[in-house]
Amino acid sequence: MVDLSRRRLFTRKAARNDTLRLPWLNAPERFIDQCTQCEECLKACDTQIIVKGDGGFPQVDFSIDECTFCYQCASACPEPLFAAEQNEPWQAKAVINDQCLAQQNVECRSCGEMCDSMAIQFRLEVGRVAQPKLETNQCNGCGACVSVCPTSSINVSNHVA
């Protein structure tokens, strides 16, 4: 007979702490210890962006789609991991890296067109195509900009520089 509590010891170590997990977590730093990996959140996600990640724990994959903040993942979870829906979902914000086409002087505004909160605006510059300007205080971390980026230059993270 396999002692699952001992096996879980190893899966916890395999899971990364910097991974963007789920919105509305009460204590993201204790998520690995409290999640039972029941996969109810995966089944409940409207946009199917919750996937099995490192160590088998759920995480968000914005390359699939965006988070609509529907709260279905939290409602489906049998564990007391989530804060109330009225709270802010998370502190995650988008980050645009140097591989952005506009920064390579190629016209692209895909991310700005998908950004409902209008956190990504494009500013005109002399001798260059319009450059993206990310207003992190307006970004809600929904990830709508990630999957539409043709160069995968956008990431949503809790660690914004």
UniProtKB/TrEMBL annotation:
The gene is napF. Its cofactor is [4Fe-4S] cluster. InterPro entries: 4Fe4S_Fe-S-bd (IPR017896), 4Fe4S_Fe_S_CS (IPR017900), Fe-S_Ferredoxin (IPR050572), LdpA_Fe-S-bd (IPR057431), NapF (IPR004496). The lineage of its organism: Bacteria, Pseudomonadati, Pseudomonadota, Gammaproteobacteria, Vibrionales. Gene3D superfamilies: 3.30.70.20. Its main location: cytoplasm. [4Fe-4S] cluster 3 binds at residues 139, 142, 145, 149. PROSITE patterns: 4FE4S_FER_1, 4FE4S_FER_2. Interacts with the cytoplasmic NapA precursor. It comes from Vibrio panuliri. CDD domains: NapF_like (cd10564). This is Ferredoxin-type protein NapF. Residues 26-55, 56-87, 130-159 form the 4Fe-4S ferredoxin-type domain. Could be involved in the maturation of NapA, the catalytic subunit of the periplasmic nitrate reductase, before its export into the periplasm. Keywords: 4Fe-4S, Cytoplasm, Iron, Iron-sulfur, Metal-binding, Repeat. The keyword 4Fe-4S applies.
